[in-house]
Request: fold
Amino acid sequence: MRPSHLALAVLVAAVWGVNFTVIEIGLDHFPPLLFSALRFLAAALPAVFLVGRPKVAWKWIVAVGLVLGVAKFGLLFVGMDAGMPAGLSSLVLQIQAVFTAAIAALTLGERPSRIRLLGMLIALAGIAVAAVDEGASGPLGAFALVVGAAACWGASNVLTRKAAPPDALNFMVWVSTVPVLPLLALSLLTEGPSRDLAALRALDWQGAGTVLYVAWFTTVFGFGAWGFLLRHHPASTVAPFSLLVPVFGMSSAFVFLGEPVSPLRWCAAALLVGGVGLASLTPRGPGTRRPPLGRLDQHPGRADVERAGPHAEARVAVEVAVVGPGDDRALRTVAEGRRGAGVGPCPGGGRADPHRVAE
Reply:
């Protein structure tokens, strides 16, 4: 990877990690559900007029929009508003990898390998340590809401895998059109029209800046840049950079919000990131073989994206961060394609294809 591309990969991880701190600041200006609705509105407009028509069926756009946009981000924003720290949120959301693998096993029949199961157990141990740390200093209810957001993220990852979108940015922009009205309706019902109106009337440059950051930088720039990297490098090369998201998330929360990072939280981070990394390893299967060298020489870097399936790029981008990764983000989170081996926080699945390259 050339230095400029390496810097871009680190920059995307930083943008997605800092996103949690920006969300925390934005929650001082907006009720959580209204903030989430404004985020998706800004992500969809005017981009929806620039990315072209949807490239997947509307049923998948609506399904992912409801699960990822309404459920995942609704729970995340409400959980953070209820007291879940920004840095810890960026870390706990990585458990979506375990939920993704579990849901894929139940619905798609994907069987995780032993090493992936070990990684998942280590990641769960990290979540347990984080819960103990948060229970000593913060509300466990807010912690549970963010874990619920991670579960919804895992479900949306499986839906995205089924949708197989060929264009990450196009898919994410159209998905962003779905949650706006449901989130606005929920905000009016639960947060109240008077509170929403007061927040909009008091809108200042800082509040507007948080909306634009989580919409344009995290979603449009983040997904666009991540897709660019995947078009030029193997998924297995790009994927590990998503593990930097919680590092930037916890660091930025410490610097800008004064959020303390206890030794127990660092222990949780090491277990969770290490477990997710272990679960992301791709063992070489006995039934796989390499294609002729000419194919790789003619399309350097592209063969890796191709072998991951036509939807790998979009799933990688969407799953990481929309952070939600919120924009997602994440995601943080990266996935391989059809052959049962995931790269990064979101395991792939399916049956091995003997005509595709083994990792």
Q: What stands out?
A: The two ends are 17 Å apart (CA to CA). The chain has one domain: 3-194+207-282+294-328. Residues 3-194+207-282+294-328 form one domain.
